[in-house]
Amino acid sequence: MSNKVKINIDGKEIEAIEGANLLQTALDNGIEIPNLCYHKKLSPTGACRLCLVKLNDEDKMTTSCSTKITEGLKVKAFDDDLEDHRKMLLEYYLAEHNEEYDGSHEDELLELTKRYGLEKLENREVHFVDKVEFPLKDVSSSVLTYDATKCIKCYRCVKACDEVQGKGVLSMTERGITTSVLAGDGIWGESECDGCGECVQLCPTGALVEKSYQDELKIDKIDRKVKTTCPYCGVGCQMEMWVQDEKIMRVTGVEGVMPNDGRMCVKGRFGYHYVQSGDRLTSPLIRKNGEFVEASWDEALDLIANKFKDIKKKHGSKAFAGYASAKCTNEDNYIFQRFIRQVLGINNLDNCARLCHASTVAASQMALGGGAGSNSIEHYAQADLIYVTGNNIIETHPVTATYLKEGKAAGAKVIVVDPKYTKLVRYADIWLQPKIGTDVALLNGLIHVILRDNLIDLKFIKNRIEDGEEAVQRLAKVADKYTPEVVESITNVKAEDIETAAFMYANAKKPMVATGMGMSQEVTGVNNVLSLINMALITGGSGIKGAGINPPRGQNNVQGVSDVGGLAGTYPGYQSVADETVREKIAKVWNVEKEDLNPKPGHTAVEIMQKAHEGEIKAMYIMGENPLISDPHLSHVEEAMEKLDFLVVQDIFMNDTSVYADVILPAASFAEKNGTFTNSDRRVNRVRKVIDSPGKAKDDWRIVVEIAERMGVKFPDYKSESEIFDELASITPQYAGISWERIEHEGLQWPCPTKDHPGTSDMFLDKYGTESGLAKIFPVEHVEQEERASEKYPLILNTGRLLYHYHTATMSRRSDTLTEFVNEAFIELNDIDAVKLDIKEGDKVKVSSPRGEIETNAKISDEVAEGEVFMPWHFNESKVNYLVRDELDPTSKIPAYKLTAVRVDKI
Amino acid sequence: MNQTLITLKNINKVNPESINSYYDYNGFKAFNRAKALMPKEIIDIVEDSGLRGRGGAGFPTGLKMKFTYEAKSKDGKKYLVCNADEGEPGTFKDRQIMEKDPFRLLEGMIIASYAIGANKAYIYIRGEYYLSIKRLKNAIEQCYHAGILGEEAFPNGESLDIEIRKGAGSYLCGEELTLLESLEGKRGHPRIKPPFPAQQGLFKSPTLVNNVETLATIPSIIRFGHSWYKNYGVENSAGTKIFNLSGDINNPGSYEYEFGVSLREMIYEVGGGIPNGKKFKAALLGGAAGTFVDESMLDLSLDYDSVKKVNATLGSGAIIVLDDSRDMKDFLRNILEFFKHESCGKCTPCRVGTKRILEMNEKLMNGVENKEQIVNQMQKEAKMMFDTSLCPLGQSPIMPLDSAVKYFKNELI
């Protein structure tokens, strides 16, 4: 397809790509053929007819948007005939169009009207006698408004919803002159529209406009549009924030740049209000007599430095712990971990990766020698099989899901493994619904079928797996007893479905696997993922282009914070703190003695809380984390917090954790800082300062540097965050070739070892990261969980996230747009259980476990299996983590959020 | 003047509800002959017969079959689609066939499916054709029962299934690409051409779309051969055509005549002339998307080439007769209203233009002064629509409009 050919447009010879779109090629070459219904992300529509051209000296007019380039193609793009017709077509548009322009949106029709000199009515020959009657403006959606009188029926919104986002909520209604766009059955707010706003982004005329700031925003008053990276989930969408009078008033996706190519979700596009919320922390606060009072930076930082010095003197370094932040930049986190290690002298440092994908990372490290996702987000679109396990991907990684749906539309088979119904099931060829906590059994069942029917990839096994066939034999020994029938009895998944799914997976040439919290947040988390990797390895579903195992990451920089050393056991680049040569190298860069660096791996997230509870840890520095909602066994965490001598919380809002603080420090939000985030597919993306911070709020890293200085440690005099990045790149082999300069336009995927390395889209193509360079098989057995349903606690609770909220909801609940969709917790109960418990939809219920009890409202559905219940964990009025135990996976130390025995009682 | 009955041969004789009756009228003899032929040989016969599409466009049927036969299918599937969405005003020929000789249509479809290698055929039928639907359903059932449809329908052991799909009243769904869109369960909107159905039709597989009359003619051609068929008609217009007479005429109805019959013969001999002592004023050939002719054209030979020479069209074979009491502006309004009503709204020239031209016609009727200017503007915009519209609907208003201006300009201005 990438054959270069020569074509001729209006006498101009152009080199073009065979098969490429003629209109796009013309536009790319500065030949401005007018068009309205065309968008390069969409299939050609041919509705506006403005892009008509004449081909090869024929009189016949053909739409250039639907013409593919062939060698020697001769194009007449402009002549009187074509221009006369275009002018009249524009007049046709204007005849049916409401030309009132409120300035709140860009308007391609208006631009063309000017270009063709049709602004004045006397220059037009077409006027309707009868005005066309359209439905009233639809204002029922929380995110947008639709004005049919401004609609030019170009189909861009319909196709944006269908082809780009894979949702298919929009269509056209009526016909002829009264055609207009319809969402669902007719009322936007009542349709299945989830508010992603792709349609708004692609609307050329302002028929669809974002609702927020619609009356305030004026295009000609926009001071700047700043390109940056979305602060929500780990997709790392590239977006532009529009600023008018120092206020962020709109967000749009950046077209043509990976990973999102302009796509966004409802949170990223419409959930930016929290940045300029009146609730932002604007001054340091110090607890005095039980009350928080405003303080100067000097007062607050001196207090912290002195307290830290005292505690260090009295109790030594082991009394400290820090929480790095998956929401802060790589630069912030790099400085933070350097502070904890160099200044406080301890590795008691962790981040919330411990709570989400620690087990995935550990298992992948063991088996593949690398913990990050092995492919790129857009690869889902080219896969021939997509296996999604324990991952409500449409809600938690909405933009990744769009590629997945694109893959499905292009013919990929989709296997969904989830104990709970997710929206993705509608796209699935098969849905396996195992009982919670039976993943290893299920995977061993799949492996059993694959081995039994010899669906393996022998070449791959021989060449790329340690011990080759022998390793597979060891696996076979374990898998032998997991016949589909046995597995059905353990998991509740039908034996025949296990057979079908096994064949489907094994026969795929490019299987993309997305594994989520359902797999990782278990006491068997590592084993779950090892088992998944076993299946991929024996079928050759790894180490190839565009296929492999990928854990979509939950937070904007959860990949980055771990990459740059926000972990108990590793320096930047996953280099072990116990490794002397590594310490030597780091010491040099940090300008300290090797001996000053603590060789002992620190405590991990939940362990830190346990150690605080035991009294070993006396002081904590929490940057941009909210463990008082997100950690398991919350009552225990509360006690731990009470016991601390000194707690510093650095955040953008007061939250459930800062309540326990001695000092609260106001930090800059992502929109107020420069830096980088690293997304799920290892792409290092730029974060740019859009506006100034409110009040006295400061960049996280600057605060840390100032505390260090007050403790007598002078960090280098960083002129900008890019210098911090260069320092971290100098000690992080994966980042060595990356600099801000290189990622100005588009991010780079690590590993990127040298300045001329193009980045790595697919991992493990030639060899794995293990010592031998070969992948390893670790056969694992299913074990019955200790935590199980009992007479007293008869239901198994599963927890998770919702599309409209993020983490502990401190950000998402400060956007009215998002809270209009959902703003309260609930517990989802199977209808059979609901009848047994005499609970009806909306009933207030008490949910209890041995560790605590909470109140919430009941939601009755068949989306959860009988005997299982589900709760989102975002909401601080129903903190589900009061119920969850803090038992950990032994290897990765991830807590078991996904399996808690509870009882539900009507209040 | 006697009809030349080929396609309508069994009408009013055969029992349309009985396969045995169809057998009595030599039913499936053509298919039996086809079974002895290679698919390519069947296509050659159809091609050599000179049969052209009877839906209105007159495209050589054999060529269309050949394209579909030769096209490579990504999923190995090919389809035959019978366009039975007879919606052109003044046209009711297909209904005749489906109601009164449904087995003949099925036989034509079976032969065509075998020839192009389709294992699935659809009849996309106008939803209001209740009796046609009933009879076709019954006929299909009987064919399954008789082992003609279903497993091993073809000599090569391949199967054939035929399914009926009902249209929901949209004129545009009679346009082949829109029809395919609708058949796939989507909104009845036209597709961009190319690709043509023969390359990428139903569900993106090669598809042969043929009109009822075309398919129902194939059995006779296969049975008696291409030279036999070519004996009928004139150069470039082989065989017979079913004409539908309606309007101000004494004997409205469906009549099958050889190409080359004159308009005068159709109106005065076949149609029995104009009723109530009125005089012939005009005929609209080909329905709404057709062209007017006046009495100077009465001796026009009704064949593809001759009508083309005078910028007229045969279209579907509709002949709507107007007597001298008819007002052209009023009649034109009727047609233009029809187009406005049937415009799907997808492409701008058609969506807006159909309303525009109708509005200008209203102005003419309301007796404004600058009528000539308005008529010129109507023609200008209709030409723009013709040049720029996505599908034949938007390209159609120019035909009745220009021909009305050509013959009846004085009446319009």
Strand order of the largest sheet of chain B: 8-7-11-9-10
How many strands of chain B?
A: 11
Strand order of the largest sheet of chain A: 14-13-26-25-24-15-16
What gap, in angstroms, lies between the N and C termini of chain B?
40 Å
The helical percent of chain A reads 25-40%
Topology:
The complex is a heterodimer of chains A (907) and B (413).
Chain A (H helix, E strand, L loop, with lengths): L3 E6 L2 E6 L4 H7 L23 E4 L5 E3 L10 E3 L3 H17 L11 H8 L28 E3 L9 H9 L5 E4 L6 E4 L14 H5 L5 E3 L13 E6 L8 E7 L2 E7 L12 H5 L14 E4 L2 E4 L2 H19 L4 E4 L6 H14 L5 E2 L2 H4 L1 H11 L16 E5 L3 H4 L1 H12 L3 E5 L12 E3 L6 H14 L5 H7 L3 H12 L4 H8 L3 H12 L4 E5 L1 H4 L4 H14 L9 E3 L7 H6 L6 E2 L3 E2 L3 H11 L14 H10 L4 E5 L3 H4 L3 H10 L2 E6 L11 E4 L8 E4 L4 E5 L12 H11 L10 H11 L16 E2 L45 E6 L15 H6 L4 E5 H7 L6 E6 L2 E10 L6 E5 L27 E7 L1
Parallel strand pairs in A: 1-5, 15-16, 15-24, 17-18, 17-20, 18-19, 20-21, 24-25, 25-26, 30-34, 31-33
Antiparallel strand pairs in A: 1-2, 3-4, 3-5, 6-9, 7-8, 10-11, 11-12, 13-14, 13-26, 22-23, 27-28, 28-29, 30-35, 31-34, 32-33, 32-35
Chain B lengths: L18 H6 L4 H7 L3 H11 L11 H10 L8 E6 L8 H8 L1 H15 L3 E6 L4 H16 L15 E6 L9 H8 L23 E5 H13 L1 H5 L2 E2 L2 E2 L1 E8 L5 E6 L4 H8 L9 E6 L5 E4 L9 H6 L8 E6 L4 H15 L5 H18 L5 H18 L3 H4 L2 H15 L1
Parallel strand pairs in B: 1-2, 1-4, 2-3, 7-11
Antiparallel strand pairs in B: 5-6, 7-8, 9-10, 9-11
